[in-house]
Amino acid sequence: MDYALGAAFFYAWSVTCARRSSAHHGPDLANLGRLLVAIVIVGLFVAFSGRHPFSAGWGWLLLGGVLGLGVGDIALFHALPRIGVGLTMLLTQCLAAPIALFLEYEILGLSPNGPQLLSALVILAGVGVALGAPAEGDPADRRAGVWLGVLSAFGQACGAVGTPMAVDACARAGETIPDGFAQGFVRLLGGVPIVLLFVLWTARKDGLLAK
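Predicted structure:
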């Protein structure tokens, strides 16, 4: 529980910082910059601490990074300037939970219990209320931001489900499950190339440093 609360706190802090950095550098460079800093710092820590990130289920972690840190975070950074930090966080974090429950059921066969299903319904109802509130600005831009927030939630859910898939693969192979730092590094290996390719593609006409 402590780790989950810590993850929620630091993720909220990260998104708040992302909104400010996006305003200065544009969403794509801001996203790429933070991931490059993360992969260097986490990679050095993993290397010098003697951790072994490539376990039996490393492919699931890599895929989780592609969908979560790659596709999901690209959508997140493009949702921020359209609908703001509050609604982006609401969509990404709240919708990720019921989507992850569904994915776990479909992939791992883990059926959600009654309280989990009730909580998912309450979350969806809360999101619906938030989306129904009057909003300022261009309606088309808001709709685009909402759909980007939903895509971000899907990416986060896929990234989260990658961990139990890796754990299951390690258990089947009789291998030790890598800790959070090692798993995070493998996820970064999947996400950074996707973001880098997206940045290069979007900058193909105006140049890399153009907003």
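Summary: The chain has a mean pLDDT of 83.
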